[in-house]
Design a protein that fits this description.
The chain has six helices and 14 strands. The chain has helices spanning about 55, 60-65, 75-80, 150-155, 170-180, 200-210, and strands spanning about 1-5, 10-15, 20, 45, 70-75, 90, 95-100, 100-105, 125-130, 135, 160, 185-190, 215, 225.
Length: about 230
C-alpha cells in the first residue's frame, strides 16, 4: 500500500489497484496550496470523515473532475447531490462490501456541520480492507473507548490519526489510541496547519519510540510505502 500526503487530513492511499482520497482540503491550507496541484489528484473513491470545511473544502471540484465515488454520511451526501455530484455512496455507521473489499464506517467523537451550516450527520472514521491489507483512518476525534472495537473488524497494518490536539487527539492520546487499535505504525495528520495545532515533532517521535511504536509525520507531497 502507498500513502501520499496532501496536508492537514487530506491524503491518498493506493491499495489493491484503487486510489482512496480522504478529506480533500488543499486550496485553503497555507502549507499545501503552493505544493500540491489539485488538478493532478486522481481518485477512484473519495471518503469524507465529517462535514467541517478543513475536510471538504475541495471536495466538489475534485469529485466533479475525477468522477470518483464519494462515500460519506447520508447527510453529507444529501448536501452534495444538488451540487451536481451523482456518483455517491451514502452510509451510516456499519459495514458494506465494495468492489475493492470491505469498508467499515465507524464512530468518531467530534462534531459535523457543513461549511454552509447544514447538519452533517455524525462524524466518523473508516477501516478499509482490501486484498493488500487493512488501514484505519480515525477522522477528527478525541481518544475514545470505541477504538477498542477496531481490532474486532480488522488487523490494522497502519493507522492515520490526528495528533495536533485542541480539536482532536494530541500525540499522547494518539499513542494510547494505537494501543486500543493494536497497531504499531501511526501516520499523524491534523497538525501544524494552524497555530492551535502546532506540535513539537522531536518530542512526538520520542514519545512513540519509547513505547516501541512508530509515528510518521509526513511532509506535504511525500509518498510512503506501507505494509504490502
Ligand atoms: Ni473537524
Ligand atoms: Mn478538522
Amino acid at each position: 500500500m502507498k500513502f501520499t500526503y496532501f496536508g492537514h487530513s487530506c491524503f491518498l492511499v493506493e491499495s489493491a489497484g484503487k486510489k482512496f482520497l480522504f478529506d480533500p482540503f488543499i486550496s485553503g491550507n497555507p502549507l499545501a496550496k503552493d505544493v500540491i496541484d489539485i488538478e493532478k489528484i486522481e481518485a477512484d473513491y473519495i471518503l469524507i470523515s465529517h462535514g467541517h470545511g478543513d475536510h471538504v473544502a475541495d471536495l466538489v471540484p475534485i469529485a466533479m473532475r475525477t468522477n470518483a465515488i464519494v462515500i460519506a454520511a447520508y447527510e453529507i451526501i444529501t448536501w452534495l447531490q444538488p451540487q451536481g455530484i451523482k456518483n455517491v455512496r451514502p452510509m451510516n455507521f456499519g459495514s458494506a462490501n465494495f468492489e475493492f473489499g470491505k469498508l467499515h464506517f465507524v464512530p468518531a467523537w467530534h462534531s459535523s456541520c457543513l461549511p454552509d451550516g447544514t447538519y452533517g450527520g455524525n462524524p466518523g472514521g473508516f477501516i478499509v480492507k482490501t486484498s493488500e491489507g487493512s488501514f484505519y483512518y480515525s477522522g477528527d476525534t478525541c481518544l475514545m473507548m470505541d477504538m477498542q472495537l477496531i481490532p474486532h473488524y480488522a488487523t490494522i497494518d497502519f493507522a492515520i490519526m490526528p495528533v495536533g490536539g485542541n480539536f482532536t487527539m494530541d500525540v499522547t492520546d494518539a499513542l494510547k489510541a494505537a494501543d486500543f487499535i493494536k497497531c504499531n505504525t501511526v501516520i499523524g495528520v491534523h497538525f501544524d496547519t494552524f497555530g492551535l495545532i502546532t506540535i513539537d515533532h522531536a518530542q512526538a517521535h520520542d514519545l512513540f519510540i519509547h513505547a516501541g511504536k512508530e509515528l510518521i509525520l509526513p511532509k506535504i507531497g511525500d509518498t510512503i510505502s506501507l505494509g504490502k
